[in-house]
Design brief:
This protein is α/β, with parallel strands linked by helices. It has helices spanning 5-8, 12-24, 43-51, 64-73, 107-115, 135-146, 166-174, 194-202, 207-210, 215-232, and strands spanning 33-37, 56-61, 78-81, 92-98, 118-129, 179-191, 241-253. Helix content is 38%, strand content 24%.
Amino acid sequence: MSWSAAQYVKFEEERTRPVRDLVARIPNGAAARAADVGCGPGNSTEVLCERYPESEIVGLDSSPDMIEAARKRLPGVAFEVADIEGWRETGFDVILANAVIQWIPGHETLLPALIGRLATGGSLAVQTPDNLDEPSHQLMREVAAEGPWAEKLAGAAIARADRNSAEWYYRLLRAHAARVDIWRTTYFHPLAGAGAVVEWVKGTGLRPFLDPLDPTERAAYLDRYEAAIARAYPAETDGTVLLPFPRLFFVATR
């Protein structure tokens, strides 16, 4: 799948608010070394830099486009193109994984492995969207299944990997961490109509449904999807659409 930093940052303020809430709950008062895994265009790394201005901070992402944007944004931070699963550095006081684990399978091994890269007393801070049952994502799957592109998009719905309950994550993390803080928040984002909702999800969840299509199919899919979004999220009198966005957070301290 192709990532676009420009598309992602169209809603940067809304995307960054959850990571600010997450980083504020990390108990570490100081951190000699911190890592932002799945750093995207560097907006989450910037929050980490603000919290730990004296730290040695590294960022990694599998997308060269995202890393290029992050390097331009924060030239003093060491960024690299890398997959989280193959990352082997250790000894971190903080590891931040903001809106990334939903794309990686095998959370039962991934999360303990990340905790294992922490120094004693270090914290793993994770935020993951929990919106697969929201109309925005249900409609992606429905439009994919009902259109002439159904065969092409048969695997798109499983592109987002594991999704588990808060209780499942708590039990997993508690076996590897001294302290686990876990919570769920629903944000309500006022957006400028159904088209803005589509632009939002084009940067993330809609990508597996669009990438396999040719330009003509993509345009037709988006037309159907936007019409369905307009029905599912009725606009206010001023044209504003309120988009609910639930997210799951946890901080596991070793």
